[in-house]
Design goal:
2 strands, 5 helices, mainly alpha, Arc Repressor Mutant, subunit A
């Protein structure tokens, strides 16, 4: 992942509703969710959710598939893993980073 892609993804996630929507799509897994189901789960207006899903899509974090009359939104796990990889690429100066129960790196 390149720096501009990471900035775009992090910017998209830097909003409460978009972060909640993305997390819900991660939980839904490969099956994904329709916007109406996702809106009901999150308790948000469908038109507001549509805006947030568009932002997540532009950042590459979600994919959209047309199934008949429905749109299915899914988390793009490859892009998500790319972002996580970018963020941790040089963790602990290239050494093995093992987390303890307190979530701190034991080799840093």
């Amino acid at each position: 992942m390149k720096e501009d892609q990471a900035i775009s993804a992090l910017g998209a996630l830097a909003h409460t509703q978009r972060l909640r929507a993305f997390r819900a799509l991660v939980v839904a897994g490969p099956a994904g969710l329709t916007p109406s189901v996702l809106a009901d789960q999150l308790g948000v207006a469908r038109n507001a959710l549509s805006f947030h899903l568009k932002e997540l899509s532009h950042a590459g974090l979600v994919t959209i598939e047309q199934q008949g009359r429905n749109l299915i939104y899914r988390a793009d796990f490859a892009h998500m893993n790319g972002l996580l990889g970018y963020l941790t690429e040089h963790c602990c100066q290239g050494g093995v980073c093992e987390l303890t129960e307190s979530s701190t790196c034991t080799t840093c």
